[in-house]
Automatic annotation (TrEMBL):
Gene3D superfamilies: Histidine kinase-like ATPase, C-terminal domain. It comes from the Bacteria. GO terms for cellular component: membrane. GO terms for molecular function: phosphorelay sensor kinase activity. Residues 246-321 form the Signal transduction histidine kinase internal region domain. Its EC number is 2.7.13.3. Keywords: Kinase, Membrane, Transferase, Transmembrane, Transmembrane helix. It holds the Pfam family His_kinase. The chain crosses the membrane at residues 12-30, 161-179. This is Two-component sensor histidine kinase YesM.
Length: 447
């Protein structure tokens, strides 16, 4: 199926339905008005011709009257008209053109008792022959003039109207094209925005477009919208499925939490009795972590509370790693009250213990919090050189893959943040100027 831009379709439709009919009707109207004016002009001239019969009374004997008669006709029909006087038998009594008088065939249609006109062809020029029969003198008064001379004014007006009709038609065509071009351009911009939005937000490009019949911009826009909506529906199904799985996991993790609290409390009491400080610290820290996770149904908390939990987690890990340094840098104190999902930082810090610690030197865990425009940025890193820089791009790709069964750490945090706050937020990894492996969290800034 051939592609034809909407602006050309709209232009063709408007031309066929409106502009061309308007032009044709205008031309027909101008022609009808012109013919009516010509007919009216002829009738007026015939009435004048009837009223000059009285000159004939002294025509043969009075040359002055003949001259006056001739001058009157000249003033009405023009100097290039021919004037004749014929008897009832159609014999020439007077003529201003002896040559035309020789053509008897021109006068065969003269009818007695009538005032009328008809067309003749003299010297290859169309002329109008007007006559009036004088019943008192039994003669014909005849005037022969070219059509151009009689209808000159009418034809000039007709030409002016024709020029106006053509100009107005061209103007309408140009306006229609400009308007249709504006519609087409607007649709093109809409299509580009839909496509760029889909690519930027959903990282999805329609690869099946080549199999779809495309007629114009409306088809493209419709196809793009349908594909985007279909993809959004699929994404929403995935989000719902992930949410159900998260709820199930959450319910499973909350099985008899009081039993866990009581068990940890008993361990703490027993450790205190036997003066085993490490076990007491471990049990108290674990109890706080469990209470933080299962204490209420709210998914969101503040950065300040997240940091408190991280400190408890660090205290637990210090039992295993005594030479552990933990440092927090905050650009603005009000950022501590910014919203964040529960257990956003803990999996990231835990990832450092799993992959960023070589067990040979002191471990330094650093958290830097700052704001950039409408983003709150939390960077977590340990001060050790990261050499496998080629793996960074692969890690970022895996975190954004829909069905990648990677670790439940960074990927889980990334997906939860995107579901909660949108695709513009989440987790990414990078290597900074000091060659440290950095996990960067992007959150919306909320005053």
């Amino acid at each position: 199926m051939m592609y034809l831009s909407l602006k050309y379709k709209y232009l063709i439709l408007t031309l066929v339905v409106f502009i061309l009919p308007y032009f044709m009707m205008t031309i027909i109207y101008i022609n009808n008005v012109g013919e009516y004016q010509k007919k009216l002009l002829i009738e007026t001239r015939l009435e004048v011709l009837k009223k000059i019969h009285y000159f004939n009374s002294s025509f043969e004997s009075n040359q002055a009257s003949t001259k006056v008669y001739h001058e009157v006709l000249n003033s009405i029909w023009g100097s290039y008209s021919d004037f004749l006087l014929l008897t009832e038998q159609k014999d020439i009594k007077f003529s201003t053109n002896s040559h035309i008088s020789e053509h008897e065939e021109y006068f065969l249609k003269l009818e007695p008792q009538k005032t009328n006109y008809y067309k003749i062809d003299y010297l290859n020029v169309e002329r109008i022959l007007m006559y009036s029969f004088d019943s008192f003198n039994n003669c014909y008064y005849v005037v022969i003039a070219t059509s151009d001379s009689i209808f000159k004014e009418v034809n000039n007006k007709k030409e002016d109207l024709m020029a106006f009709a053509i100009a107005s038609t061209l103007l309408l065509t140009i306006i229609t094209f400009l308007y249709s071009n504006k519609i087409s351009t607007t649709l093109q911009m809409l299509i580009e925005r839909i496509t760029s939005y889909r690519k930027a937000i959903y990282h999805f490009e329609d690869k099946e477009k080549k199999h779809v019949w495309i007629n114009d911009e409306l088809d493209i826009a419709s196809h793009e919208l349908n594909q985007t909506i279909a993809y959004m529906v699929e994404k929403e199904k995935g989000y719902v499925r992930e949410n159900y799985e998260a709820q199930l996991n959450n319910l499973q993790s909350q099985i008899n939490p009081h039993f866990l609290y009581n068990t940890l409390d008993n361990i703490n009491q027993l450790a205190m009795i036997h003066e085993v400080e490490e076990i007491s610290t471990l049990s108290v820290g674990l109890a706080k972590l469990f209470r933080y996770n299962t204490g209420n149904s709210e998914n969101e908390t503040t950065i300040e509370k997240e940091l408190e939990i991280i400190e408890e987690y660090i205290n637990i890990m210090k039992i295993r790693i005594s030479y552990l340094v933990f440092d927090i840098q905050i650009e603005e104190n009000d950022l501590l009250q910014n919203a964040i999902l529960k257990f956003t930082l803990q999996p990231i810090v835990e990832n450092i213990f799993k992959h960023g610690y070589n067990h040979k030197e002191a471990l330094s865990i650093n958290i830097k919090i700052y704001r950039k425009k409408n983003y709150v940025i939390i960077e977590t890193y340990n001060k050790s050189e990261y050499k496998d820089t080629a793996r960074i791009a692969m890690l970022n790709d895996k975190m954004n893959e829909e069905n990648h069964e990677g670790s439940i750490g960074l990927k889980n945090v990334n997906r939860r943040l995107k579901i909660k706050y949108g695709e513009a937020y989440g987790v990414m990894v990078l290597v900074n100027e000091q060659q440290y492996f950095v996990s960067r969290i992007l959150l919306p800034y909320k005053k």
